[in-house]
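Supplementary material to the annual report.
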Amino acid sequence: MWGNVLVYGVINSATFILLTLGFSIVFGISRIANFAYGAFYLSAGYLTWVFLTKANLPLFLALPLTILIMGVLGFMGYWVMIYRIRGNTLSEVIATFALGVGILEFFRWMGFVTYEFSLPFLKKGTIEIVGIPLDYQRLLIVLIAGGLLAFLYFYTHHTRIGRAFRAIAQNERTAISLGINSDFIGALSFSLGTAVTAIAAVTVLPLGIITINIGYEVLLTAMAVGIIGGLESIIGIVIASFILGFAQVLAAIYIAPHWSIVVILASILGVLLVRPSGIFGKYKELEERV
Amino acid sequence: MAQYRKERLDRPIKARCEDIFALTSMREILYLIFPRALLIVGVLIFPLLKGVVGLYWEKVLVITCVIGLLSLSWDLMAQVGLISLGQAFFFGVGAYITGILNHKFSLPPFVTIPLGTIGGGIVSTLFLLPALRARGVYFSILTLIIPLLLSRLIEATKIFGGTEGLSGLTPFQNFWIETYLPIFALLVCLFGFRRLINSDYGLIVQGVRDNDRIVMSIGINIYKIKAHILFISSLVGAFAGSFITHYYRFVGLPAFALDYSILPLACAILGGPGSFAGALVGSFILVPLSEVLRVLGSLRVVFYSLILAVCILSLPEGIFHYIQRKYHQFERIVEI
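Predicted assembly:
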């Protein structure tokens, strides 16, 4: 029983990390809350599906192509939409929200709702860990989540662009005065965020069939984790993912599966009451802003 | 080469109307009253014409008023800097409280609607109270996810009728009451909100939006102001929900649906945020249009989103401000 909780808790937490990273990167760097996040996630899923079944591309070609295309789309999306309204929270929120709902409902209208829409596992087969059979895909989720975190840490600390990301996140005006192009970096962060979203999509989506509601669900998950951990803090996201991941598995095993939603709602309200800026959030509350 | 620019000047009549002088001339009085009278007389007369326009369009008017109420409540919250993405939350809470009161205790509509309104207002304000301390997008995020989570909660735990909802509720039984109730509510809210926002209290409200630290430094508790506005807005939203519960004789998961969040938002942005009248203009354009487009099915939501995105990117001032400018000012080309 405890093995079950441990193994599935870790997998669940890794899934949460994957699902939240794309949202958190963009918000952490350029302070844009991307409400179109769920739509990007689902777009990546459908794009891969189209490549695999309509264009008959092999898997190892389709996945990088999807991730690349999503990254480029994110870059272009920044210049087309966000660039005009950057800095105006009301406009940013509404524009990305409208884009997200528009894309998702367009998919629904296109009829992307039947069971045939599913992605293949990256690697088939199962493995046994502490006596619990586990398929490679779930193991891969954990590995990819860990790998992405390590990559992001390395990228933001040891490359020029990555350091520019951190500079913009810390103080945009000072960064501009040092010759960093805020809009270009913003666009790059958007692109990185969408690419990470695409990676999450091709890793997590094969576990089930693709439905439109997944788009809303992913947005919901990302935001719940973000609120609990603090939207801009990667450490906060990791810890919040573990809290939520294990709480959900425990609730599902010991109470009833549908209680996992109650757990999320209760933890959001609890965190808000005790610490409105999330466990590791810094920028949210008025008094905490310097 | 001569260069030209557009110059904008107030009409003389507008300048005169800002004075007490307005009261001495019929023309000036008419200039002031005409836009307001157009709206009031228009919506009050429309139900009387039910023989001409048909019952269908009377129903559309009622829905328009309900969405108009939601978009007014959105606009009021935007005045204090709270950007909501989930008017469906207030709507749904009001609708469910009313539905439960009517279904379980068989109370008549004239009891359940006030109770649902006040109860919905209190419940949703209490829910969102912790979020008021957070600034920026956090409030938007919460208002977006809470209705979605609540509908999933109802779906999973099967409380309050689960996915089936509660049906067979008491209808109004009187055409005039069910048509004029939302119309009067809409007019009261519109003119009440405009008056509120132009009062001294309204100045503080706008101050909280523009620069909350200055308002704090004067010694005003901004959280109290935000909570007041949130409560008023959620009252209006909950009223819309309780009314529609008895109107449709049904309450269920659709009450928390995204439609009730995105349509009022699109109306307010299309009409122009910040003036309340804009929200109304927006809903009187968009809701009838969306009824016409009902054949498109779920593509309608795509259509709202498209309008929303285009408006926010290229027409951020909204239709109402454009009309207002044309009414009060004239433009001419002058040489630089």
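Residues 31 and 187 of chain A are 12 Å apart (CA to CA).
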